[in-house]
Each structure stands twice: as C-alpha cells, then as structure tokens.
Design a protein that fits this description.
Strand content: 15-25%
Number of helices: 13
Number of strands: 27
Distance between the termini: 12 Å
Mean pLDDT: 97
Radius of gyration: 22 Å
Length: about 525
C-alpha cells in the first residue's frame, strides 16, 4: 500500500490547483487519483474543437434521470475525464461571478468567503494579459486573455444588443457585471489554457508529486472517524492509497457526493437501502443547482465557423496562435435582469458564431449561429443520489430545471430579450430563417414550451456538498477528520456566471487552508 501526505481524488480544475500548490513544499508527498489519462488529444488544445470531445472517451458522458420540469427529458451532461477535467473541454470563458454571490455566501454562514476575502485568490491565480489593477492579477499560473478570433457574428450580436438598449461592457469581471461584450478567455497564445496546462504540467517533474492516471476511486477509507486513504481500482486490481494527513475529494459536483455516499457519508435511509453502512449522516448530494440554457439558432448567409476546420486554419493556429480555430465558439455574451427591481443579473447570454442545438449534439448542415439566455440564479434545486453501491455505476441526477415559477418566468423573460436582440438591424440583416426548432409564437406559453423541449445544461453543476450543510467554511467534511471536499460541490449557491474561475479560486483558497491547518499539526509518518 502506497502512502502520501495528501491524496487528491480528481485531476480536474480544483485537483490540478491543489496538486501544484501543495507540492510546492518539497517535504510534502502528494498523490492525485485520476480516472482519465493525460490531456494529449488535439481536440482539447484546439479551442474551436471542444464539442468534438462530447461522448468521446474523454467524457464521462452522464445523463440525468427524467427531469420533471422539462417534460421528462433526460439531460446530456458532458464532464471532462482527463487531466484538467472540465477545464479541458469547456468554452474557456473566464467569469468570476458577481460580488453579491460571495457576500451572500458569507452572510449565510460561509465565513471567509465574502467577495473581499476571495478576490485575492482570483487575482493570485490570474495572469491577465490586459495587465494588473485592483481587480485583476498578473503573474499567476492561469493565462486570461482577450479572444483572438474576433468573429463578425460576435460583433453583430454586441451591436444588436446595444441597439436594443443594453450597455456595452468590456470587463464582466470589473466594476459591474451588467451589459454586453466579448468574454475574456482562459487561453494562452490562442490555445486552451486549462488547469492542467496552467498548474499541473509545470509541477509534474517534482519528485514529491505522483499522478495516478486511469485509476478510479471507489470509496474513502474511514477508520475510527478519520479518513485514512482511498480505495481505488487500478490496472485491474483494487488497492488502497493511504493519506497520512488528508484525503481531498475534487471529483466534481456529481462524483464527489457519490464518493462520499459510497464511503458511508450521506442520507442514512438512502445508504441503508443501498446496503452501505452509515458512518455519518449528512445531506450529501442534496441542493444541486445548475444553469439551464436556451439557444435560439438562426440560418444565415454570413460567414460562420462551420468551415473553420481547414488545413490552412490549422496551420495558422499552430504557427501564430490565430485564426478561426482559436474561437471558443461563445465569443460574446452579456448579463441582464428579467425584472427592473433586481440589483444583480439573473440572466446570462452566450453568442456563438455556429449553430448549437440538440444539446450540442445536433447536426451542423448549413451556416448558422446561435445565442440565448441561461437562468443565472435558479431557485430550483435537485439532487445526486446513488443508483447502486457499485462504484462503476453512474449516479442518479435530477436538477429539477424550471420546476419553480421564478425560474419559468426568468427563462421566458430571457427568451424575449433574445428575440428583441434578433430583431435589431445588426442581427436581423444577417438572419435568413430559423435553424431547427424555434418558438412557434411569442406567447408566454409557447416560449416556455419551447424552453422546456429545447433547453439544456450550461455545464455548471454545484452545491451538492455545500458549505454549512456537508462541509464547514474550511471545506472539512462535518464530523469526519482528515477529509475535505474542494470543487464546485461546496458552493452554497451557483455563482452568477461560468463556474471554472470560481472553482480555481476555491482551490487556491483551500490550498492555503490546508497548509495553515497542517502547519499546526504534522502527524508522524507510518
């Protein structure tokens, strides 16, 4: 049985940050358990190619159970299964969320997580190509840059939104989040800058860091109320990896709660029904939130990204880090409110210079583009539960999308904003018709019905091991020593925006918490 000081489950965004930061101390032994393998696939590093990773061997390829609020449809839930996790297959949009998010977390009991307290960790992580100021950092591992594609359809969306009366905003992570503009991206020289590229790869040569690829975690080993290691399947064998200090779950909002429940930590009745001994009763898996998105797709005669994958563009990307293949697809967007009285946005838009329909799996047969809203502050919550006690069984997932009146009203208001933008000259002159399914009318009932049949996840699951319910503000699992969770599952509520930057921030903060905690008590190595 191999032994380390820290055992991290998951080489996704949080796991990469923790691996790099904890192994900075040469006297600390760190192991990372990753079910996938190295991030060597070309589609990972070519920004415009990320949809090609869906349903590949680099994708966990999860599906929800029937979702009651969207007609019983099962949602397709792609999740990265490789070094970098979802940061190796996302749209690279760098959004921190709104300061209100973190201040609300702190007000609800998440001590230490106010905006003023997390801002230094955002800045520490960041190497913003625009330079340093009070809100942005330089010199950090994660390159944040302006996109290099500059697609005219993204420009047209921004102009049309301005024509509809929305303000321009060149920095959604700046003084205000409201408005429309182009997103900053986690790209370096036109290529993806995942958490693996930013954090893990520079640390791989350290002798005190061990990464165990193609290794699946089965459960946390808990002895006398303390986590002492992780049982894993590796190369056809089941073995244990011992943690002398702490086990850290960074497997994401679906897998981290599953692992806790397989380890005997969770709702007692459900664990007993699955034949699992109850070691701790906590509401693990409850409170799931996600952003539900609706994308209006349009046909056009304008140039799109449909033909971007040419040999000339591939050569331009590799030689100069420029051209259409640097596009993250969702180059532009914005933040809006569905009701005038709201102090912060409850809708986010993404605008793509290519069609994106049928959950990103629909055929692309002619030029088109897409844009639309997501419900940014959902009031509906779901759950992750066990399907069985088998570690290789996918969990049951129900988000309860659009099951509250507030969420239904918000999505209808967002689609109305999208239709208004589409009617402006900068957009209307480019549209030749709908691309695939579209609302049959602009009535509230039809807009809602269309959202229910055509919407999808925006890939932002959170809150299944939330601070105050499953972990304390230092991310320690309640009533279990030596065990923490560090990923989006600890967020009390889903932030207003794409979740990769907040996950990286949380892991930066967790690294400090771990170092401070264990500086006070260094156990004797066995």
């Amino acid at each position: 049985m191999s032994a380390y000081d820290y055992v991290i489950v998951g080489a996704g965004s949080a796991g990469c940050v923790l691996a790099a930061r904890l192994s900075e101390d040469p006297g600390v032994r760190v192991a990372v358990i990753e079910a996938g393998g190295p991030d060597t696939a070309q589609e990972i590093h070519t920004p415009a190619a990320f949809p090609q990773l869906f349903k590949s061997d680099l994708d966990w390829d999860l599906n929800s159970d029937p979702e009651p609020g969207i007609g019983g449809r099962r949602a397709f839930l792609p999740r990265g299964k490789t070094f970098g996790g979802c940061s190796s297959m996302n749209a690279m949009i760098y959004i921190r969320g709104n300061r209100v998010d973190y201040d609300d977390w702190a007000a609800a009991g998440a001590k230490g997580w106010s905006y003023a307290e997390v801002l230094p960790y955002f800045r520490r992580a960041e190497d913003n190509q625009r330079g340093e100021d009070q809100l942005h950092g330089t010199g950090g591992p994660l390159t944040v840059s302006d996109g290099r594609s500059g697609h005219p359809l993204a420009t047209a969306f921004v102009r049309a939104a301005e024509q509809a009366g929305h303000r321009a905003n060149d920095d959604f992570n700046g003084a205000t989040q409201f408005g429309v503009g182009r997103y900053q991206l986690t790209q370096r020289d036109g290529l993806r800058c995942s958490a693996a590229v930013a954090y893990l790869h520079p640390a791989l040569d350290r002798p005190n860091l061990t990464v165990l690829p193609s290794t699946r975690a089965h459960r946390v080993v808990i002895e006398d109320g303390r986590a002492t290691g992780v049982e894993v399947a590796r190369a056809g064998n089941v073995e244990s990896v011992r943690a002398e200090r702490e086990v850290i779950l960074s497997a994401g909002a679906y897998e981290s709660p599953k692992l806790l429940m397989l380890s005997g930590i969770g709702p007692a009745a459900a664990l007993t029904a699955a034949g699992i001994d109850v070691l701790g009763e906590l509401p693990v898996g409850q409170g799931l939130q996600d952003h539900y998105a609706t994308m209006l797709n349009f046909r056009t005669d304008a140039e799109t990204l449909i033909d971007a994958a040419s040999s000339a563009n591939a050569e331009l990307l590799q030689r100069a880090g420029r051209g259409p293949l640097t596009s993250n697809l969702a180059e532009a967007g914005g933040f809006f409110r569905s009701r005038d009285e709201l102090a912060a946005p409850d809708l986010q838009f993404h605008a793509l210079a290519a069609p994106f329909h049928q959950e990103g799996l629909g055929p692309v047969t002619e030029p088109g583009f897409a844009f639309g809203p997501c419900v940014l502050t959902p009031t509906s919550r779901g759950a992750v539960t066990l399907r069985s006690a088998r570690p290789d069984a996918a969990p049951r997932i129900v988000h309860n999308y659009l099951t509250t009146a507030e969420d239904r009203a918000a999505v209808v208001a967002g689609i109305r904003i999208a239709l208004e933008i589409a009617a402006q000259p900068a957009m209307a002159d480019l549209i030749t018709g709908p691309y695939g399914d579209a609302p049959a009318s602009d009535s509230d009932a039809e807009l809602l019905a269309w959202a229910q049949r055509a919407g999808q996840t925006l890939y932002h699951p959170t809150s299944t091991c939330a601070i105050g319910r499953v972990v304390d503000p230092e991310l320690r699992v309640l009533d279990v020593a030596g065990l923490r969770v560090v990923d989006a599952s600890v967020f009390p509520m889903v932030p207003r925006g794409n979740t990769n930057a907040p996950v990286i921030m949380a892991a930066e903060k967790a690294a400090d918490l771990l170092k401070e905690s264990n500086a006070r008590h260094v156990p004797e190595r066995r």
